[in-house]
Amino acid sequence: MGSEYYGGRQASAIGQRFGNGPRRWRRWRWPLVALVVVAIVAGVIVYKAIGPNSWTGHIGGRDTPGGTWQGVGTVSASNGGRYVLYVTFTAGKADDRPGGLDLCAGRSDDSPCGDVTGSAKLCTLSGVTQDLHLDGRMDAGSSTDGTGGTLVLTKDGAGTIAYLSGIWRGGNLTLFDDSVFPKHVTKQGAITAEPATSDASARVTLAYGTEAAFTRSCRALTNTAS
After folding, report:
1. Does pLDDT of 125 surpass 80?
2. Which residues contact 181 (CB under 8 A, 6 or more apart)?
3. Residue ranges per domain, the chain?
4. pLDDT band (50, 70, 90) for residue 115
5. In whole angstroms, what is the distance from residue 134 CA to residue 153 CA?
């Protein structure tokens, strides 16, 4: 009798402990399923946003978790002009800035393409620094190395003053403009809305650099001209 009583009490305790398992599972099943579905959907959204464009975290071979890169280079133009160019851009849609250019829009193929927006500064032989808007695109997938890049520089009141296209080689972005820059930027650095010359050719290699590095290079440029 005692044994049976003990066995019954034991069975009752086990039932109290585990017997409600199925009901507890039913209670939590749908919230768990909903949580899994939300996690899957969020993963798909994140992948579509950054998966095909994972270059944004490694622009120019550097860690750029915010998708922002900055660089400095000397522009050599066919009109004899020399200029120091500073650019800073962030991966993002062109419509993030009013009047921005969406250079990835209208592409007929499925090759990787990511918009960038930002600003630029152009130091001139005359000592004047021009502030510019920057729009562009990077034809990159998981890395920028060996892929194409395009930067379009515009000036309020003058429109497009440079249309630079080229390729990444490691941490350097080498760009050419054979149609716009010298037509709208004189040798001394004045910007004109109307073409100043029919001759147009310019080249620049941008390497990672800060605005402070740009200031030093600009000072050196103007010193050589004086």
Report:
1. yes
2. 75, 77, 161, 162, 163, 164, 200, 201, 202
3. 2-50, 55-225
4. confident
5. 5
Q: Amino acid letter at 175?
A: L
* Residue that has been written with the tokens 């650095």 in this structure: 189
Report pLDDT for 91.
87
- pLDDT given for residue 60 in this prediction: 92
Q: What is the pLDDT of residues 48-72, one digit of tens each?
A: 444 445 788 889 999 998 899 999 9
Both tokens of residue 141? 């997938």
What does the alpha-carbon distance between residue 80 and residue 95 come to, in Å, rounded to a whole number?
36
